[in-house]
Amino acid sequence: MAARSYPGATIGTSPEHPHVSSTASATPPRGRVAQIRETFRLTRRVDPRIGWILLGLFIAVLAVFVGAGFALKMPVYLGIIGVPVALLATTFVFGKRAERAAYSQVEGQVGAAASVLSALRAGWFVTPAVAVTKNQDLVHRVLGRPGIILVSEAPPSRAGQLLATEHKRTARFVGDTPIFEIQSGDGEGQVSLRKLQRTVMKLPRNLKPGQVTAVRRRLDALTTTPLPIPKGPMPKSARPQRG
Fold it and tell me: Carries keyword Transmembrane helix (predicted)?
């Protein structure tokens, strides 16, 4: 099956989400400074005032420490302490705003859940679009210590059946391995993109690392099984890739 890309790889470039799973893009690792610069550039597309906000925050925090230093007759000492504190506060706010901007860029796009899941930390293995329908409903598969998590991108009226079908198909290959189902989306009973990672990572740990490796080998056979591609055009942003 041809490799396909998903929108919004920027989810993984946020300072809040620096890790990308082994099934994500094969882009060579970049330096930390280059990563921050790229994150800032992408964030500014959605949040044009980000630079002024961060600069103002840094100056405000530093001013508080310097002002307190003059009041206590130790401006140099508190000023030196204020610099790392101001940097920490600025970095925290930058991370939050960058994360918010990243989500806003992928929300509503086909494959958005796969983009969010691909930013899970090491030890999680994400295979996008293990099931695709003619309506461009998707199921993504995540493997980790909890077991197998199937995540749908579909309206609530179709997501349940879609997940049940993939659940049954996957269970034939993995025996007693726990399989969880999550409906991503904004409908009733669904998990929003902003809460998707947190929901996955809160699942109970059922497998040891060695068991995860064994299950992954079994799933390789399932992944290599040809997936019927629905007729009709499919946006480039929704093309599945092998995990």
Answer: yes
In tens, the pLDDT along 95-131 reads: 989 888 888 777 778 888 988 898 888 899 999 999 9
The predicted model scores a pTM of 0.65
Q: pLDDT tens for residues 24-74?
A: 344 445 678 888 888 888 889 888 999 999 999 999 999 999 999 999 999
Asked if 120 and 197 count as a contact pair (C-beta separation under 8 A), the reply is yes
> Do residues 198 and 191 make contact, with C-beta atoms less than 8 angstroms apart?
no
